[in-house]
Amino acid sequence: MERVMGGGGLQLVLFSAGLLLLYRILVRLRTGAALQDAVVVITGASSGLGKECARVFHAAGARLVLCGRDAARLQQVVQELTASSTSSRPQTYTPCTVTFDLSDTATVDGAAEEILKCYGHVDVLINNAGISYRGNILDTHLSVQRDVMETNYFGTIALTQALLPSMVHRRSGHIVVISSVQGKIAIPYRSAYAASKHATQAYFDCLRAEVEHYGIPVTVISPGYIRTSLSVNAVTGDGSKYGVLDKTTAAGREPRDVAQAVLKAVRQRSKDVVLAGAQPNLAIYLRTMWPALFFKLMSSRARKERKPKDE
Ligand SMILES: NC(=O)C1=CN([C@@H]2O[C@H](COP(=O)(O)OP(=O)(O)OC[C@H]3O[C@@H](n4cnc5c(N)ncnc54)[C@H](OP(=O)(O)O)[C@@H]3O)[C@@H](O)[C@H]2O)C=CC1
Ligand SMILES: CCCCCCCCCCCCCCCC(=O)OCC(=O)COP(=O)(O)O
């Protein structure tokens, strides 16, 4: 009897070890999803996180289509990438560029056609371009609320919808959007930005459910602060440029590290990734699990940050 139990035990151990090995192989296969030769479109590729994404996807052997508003700055990125290329593996490609303004949604269909002409199809669309905002709601023109929404939300979804049919037709593709922690929680003096990122989260969550059966994954990435020019480029309530590198931005994560995390999320076809520290994660948790406390914390934050002008 003991011998039978012993044999059964051994079989169970071997079976579990086999399962574990299979799981590890599957995880490794997922981690290694190939980007060599993949056609990767990156918006907002002329600076900050977009430019770093261009570097890491280029180094991984992707065929890039870099998008932005300024042709000369995009060309500068192309030159930097090609200058850094070596002849060693993986094989790298000189990126294509497409210049357009996302806030001018009427031009986005034409831009999508140009994007498709580069390599005939798109494997990965990384919706990264965006603009932030600083201001209190009382002093903010409605046109500013609209402008931020045009770039961050309508421009992004217009490009996505223009490229989606070709992905559906091929039953292949991957859509990524760079949202923000502020797509999950709203903090004071960021109404236009937080609203645009919440809308982004909702839209891409709907899209994920709708296109999964075509084999098209959707990845929403929500970073905390990154050391870029986002705050410098932010708009204020009257539409003027904020122009200040905030301490929170300056102390943010290195764009290179965030770009590596984006690459990993694409390889793993992750659905929803928060790239932030303990405090923002706790805040996201409280917003759902203990909203009353979250709202109190945000009110107190608003009082502390209130400028003399608001009194
Ligand atoms: N930095 C941070 O702390 C965080 C950033 N994010 C998100 O990361 C993304 C990248 O921002 P980041 O790199 O930080 O900031 P940057 O200001 O450095 O980059 C923003 C990019 O978006 C492009 N862009 C802005 N407006 C438009 C437009 N109307 N049409 C086309 N392109 C446009 C800019 O291109 P152009 O050359 O034309 O100006 C620029 O390349 C944004 O979506 C942002 O919300 C998320 C969390 C934290
Ligand atoms: C009982 C103890 C509770 C402690 C809870 C801590 C709650 C702290 C609040 C944390 C708020 C985090 C805000 C993070 C915002 C962020 O990372 O935004 C990323 C951006 O998109 C930055 O854009 P911006 O233009 O705002 O610089």
TrEMBL record:
GO terms for molecular function: oxidoreductase activity, acting on the CH-OH group of donors, NAD or NADP as acceptor. Gene3D superfamilies: NAD(P)-binding Rossmann-like Domain. Residues 38-229 form the Ketoreductase domain. InterPro entries: KR_dom (IPR057326), NAD(P)-bd_dom_sf (IPR036291), Sc_DH/Rdtase_CS (IPR020904), SDR_fam (IPR002347). SMART domains: PKS_KR (SM00822). Keywords: Membrane, NAD, NADP, Oxidoreductase, Transmembrane, Transmembrane helix. SUPFAM superfamilies: NAD(P)-binding Rossmann-fold domains. CDD domains: 11beta-HSD1_like_SDR_c (cd05332). One of its GO terms (biological process) is lipid metabolic process. One of its GO terms (cellular component) is cytoplasm. The chain crosses the membrane at residues 6-26. NCBIfam families: PRK06181.1. Putative oxidoreductase. Belongs to the short-chain dehydrogenases/reductases (SDR) family. This is Dehydrogenase/reductase SDR family member 7B. It comes from Liparis tanakae. The gene is dhrs7b.
